[in-house]
Specification:
single chain, about 475 residues, Alkaline Phosphatase, subunit A, 15 helices
Length: about 475
C-alpha cells in the first residue's frame, strides 16, 4: 500500500476526529453542568435526591377519571352532552371526531386514601390506596399528541417522531451506571393476558437515537433467557470465550485506531458487558432467596416471567445492583370499548405490584433515593365512546388535555396532590404540568440541569426537554 495512504489511515480526518469525540461528549457536557467537577460515567452528583429511576409506563392511556380524579359532575350529567365550550376547536382521535360527546359517569368507586385523604379508586386501586401517603399524585398533566406512538415517544424522548434518545439513554450518557456487571438502562415489557387492546412496543422507546449506541436500553425478554446469546455455545468454555473476546478486542482496537468510529468502542464494551452478564444475569433472575413475604406482596404474577409483577421485582433487583434506569412498559390500557371489562384486568395486574415495589424499596432503605413514576401517555375522555345503552361496550377515547400520574421516592413530596382538572376532568386548570416539565423535574432530582445536558447533532445541540420545560418545585420535598 502506498505510504501516503497508510499515513492517511493512521491519522484522523476532521470528520473522524469529531466522530471519535462523540463518545466522550457526555463527560464534557456533565462536567459543564456540574461546574467541571464530575465525569459523565460516574455516580450521580452528591446533591442529587435520586440515584436511579424506575418508570412504570402504562401504554394506552389509563383513565384518570376512573382511577385518580373522580368527577361527580360527570355522574350528575351522565348521558347528557358535554358543554360545547369545552371541546370547541380541539383535536381528538378520528374514532370520535364526528360523534356526539355524551358525559360518561365514573364506572369505579372512589374514597379518601391514607392520612392525606387523597381520593383514589377504592374498587380498582386498593393497593395503591395503601401507599397514598407515599406518593405525589399529579392531576394536571397535559400533552400535545392524541395517538399512542407519537404520544409515548414524546414522553420518553421529548419529541413525537422516532430518532431522539430516550430518557434512560440520556441518563446513561450523562451519569453512567453504578454497576460493572449490568447495563445502565434496562427495559422490560408486559401485557395483560387475553387483552384485545395492546400497543406495539417499538424499539425506539428505549433507543439511543443519535447518542452512541452504547447508551441504548437493553431489553430483557419475558420468556426463556432474558438476554439472547449470553450462554456459551456447546464446546466453548469460559476460558476459550475469554480468549476469543481478548483477540476480538485487539482487532476492534486496531480498527478504531484506523477509522475512529465510536461505534467500534460500543462494540467492544458490549462484548465485555455480555461476558460479565453471563454471571450477573442468572443471579439477578434467581428469586429463590427472596422471602415468601416479599413474593406474596407482589402478587401471584411474580412467578410468571413477562408478567408486570415479575418485572416489578426484577426492577427492584436491578436498581439494587446498580442499574441506573429501569423502564417497565405495560400495554392494554386503551379502553375504547372495554371500560367495564378489560379495564378490570389492567388494574388487577398492575395495582398490587406497583404498590409492592414502593413498599419493598422503602423496607430496604432505597425509596429515598429511587424515583418511581407511574403513568401513561395521556388520559381518557370524559365523554363516552360507543352506545350509552350498551354498558358492556362503554369506552373512552384518547385525552391529552388533562390527566393524572403519580411519583414516589427520590425527593418527591409524600401524600401530596398537585394540580387539578376542571369539574368534568377535561382540561388541566390548576398548576398545569407539561411533559417537558416532568422530564425537567426528573433530571433535576438526579442532580442534572435539563438545559445543560446536551448533545450536538446535525448542527444543533439537542436535549431531552428540547427548548422547553421547567422544574416543578411544588412537588419536591
Amino acid at each position: 500500500m502506498n505510504t501516503s495512504i497508510l499515513d492517511y489511515h493512521r491519522s484522523h480526518t476532521r470528520r473522524e476526529l469529531f466522530a471519535g469525540a462523540g463518545s466522550t461528549l457526555g463527560a464534557a457536557a456533565l462536567s459543564q453542568l456540574l461546574g467541571g467537577t464530575a465525569a459523565a460515567a460516574g455516580p450521580a452528583p452528591s446533591f442529587a435526591k435520586a440515584k436511579r429511576v424506575i418508570y412504570l409506563f402504562q401504554n394506552g392511556g389509563p383513565s384518570h377519571i376512573e382511577l385518580f380524579d373522580p368527577k361527580p359532575k360527570l355522574t350528575e350529567m351522565h348521558g347528557q352532552p358535554l358543554p360545547e365550550s369545552l371541546i370547541e376547536g380541539l383535536r381528538f382521535s378520528t374514532m370520535t371526531q364526528t360523534k356526539a360527546k355524551l358525559c360518561l359517569g365514573q364506572v369505579t368507586e372512589s374514597a379518601p386514601a391514607g392520612q392525606c385523604g387523597m381520593e383514589l379508586s377504592s374498587s380498582h386501586l386498593p393497593y395503591t390506596s395503601e401507599i397514598a401517603d407515599k406518593i405525589t399524585l399529579i392531576r394536571s398533566m397535559y400533552t400535545e399528541q392524541v395517538n399512542h406512538a407519537p404520544a409515548i415517544t414524546f414522553f420518553l424522548t421529548g419529541g413525537e417522531r422516532p430518532g431522539r434518545p430516550s430518557m434512560g439513554a440520556w441518563l446513561s450518557y450523562g451519569i453512567g451506571s453504578e454497576s460493572e456487571d449490568l447495563p445502565a438502562f434496562v427495559c422490560m415489557t408486559s401485557i395483560s393476558k387475553g387483552t384485545s387492546c395492546g400497543q406495539i412496543f417499538y424499539d425506539h422507546y428505549w433507543g439511543s437515537g443519535f447518542l452512541p449506541s452504547v447508551h441504548q436500553g437493553v431489553k430483557f425478554r419475558g420468556s426463556g433467557n432474558p438476554v439472547l446469546y449470553l450462554e456459551n455455545p456447546n464446546g466453548i468454555d469460559k476460558g476459550v470465550r475469554r480468549g476469543l473476546l481478548d483477540d476480538l478486542a485487539k482487532l476492534n482496537h486496531q480498527q478504531y485506531e484506523a477509522v475512529g468510529d465510536p461505534e467500534i468502542q460500543t462494540r467492544i464494551s458490549q462484548y465485555e458487558m455480555a461476558y460479565r452478564m453471563q454471571t450477573s444475569v442468572p443471579e439477578l433472575t434467581d428469586f429463590s432467596k427472596e422471602s415468601k413475604a416479599t413474593l406474596d406482596m407482589y402478587g401471584p404474577g411474580v412467578h410468571q416471567k413477562g408478567h408486570f409483577a415479575y418485572n416489578c421485582l426484577m426492577a427492584r433487583r436491578l436498581v439494587e445492583r446498580g442499574t441506573r434506569f429501569v423502564q417497565l412498559m405495560h400495554a392494554g390500557w386503551d379502553q375504547h370499548n372495554s371500560l367495564t371489562t378489560e379495564f378490570n384486568n389492567q388494574t388487577r395486574d398492575t395495582d398490587q405490584p406497583a404498590a409492592a415495589l414502593i413498599k419493598d424499596l422503602e423496607q430496604r432503605g432505597m425509596l429515598d433515593d429511587t424515583l418511581v413514576i407511574f403513568g401513561g401517555e395521556f388520559g381518557r375522555t370524559p365523554f363516552l365512546q360507543n352506545d350509552i345503552n350498551n354498558r358492556a361496550r362503554w369506552g373512552r377515547d384518547h385525552h391529552p388535555y388533562g390527566f393524572s400520574m403519580w411519583m414516589a421516592g427520590g425527593g418527591i413530596k409524600q401524600g401530596h396532590v398537585h394540580g387539578a382538572t376542571d369539574e368534568f376532568g377535561f382540561h388541566a386548570v390548576k398548576n398545569k404540568m407539561h411533559v417537558h416539565d416532568l422530564q425537567a423535574t426528573i433530571l433535576h432530582q438526579l442532580g442534572i440541569n435539563h438545559e445543560k445536558l446536551t448533545y450536538k447533532f446535525q448542527g444543533r445541540r439537542f436535549r431531552l426537554t428540547d427548548v422547553h420545560g421547567h422544574v416543578v418545585k411544588d412537588i419536591l420535598a
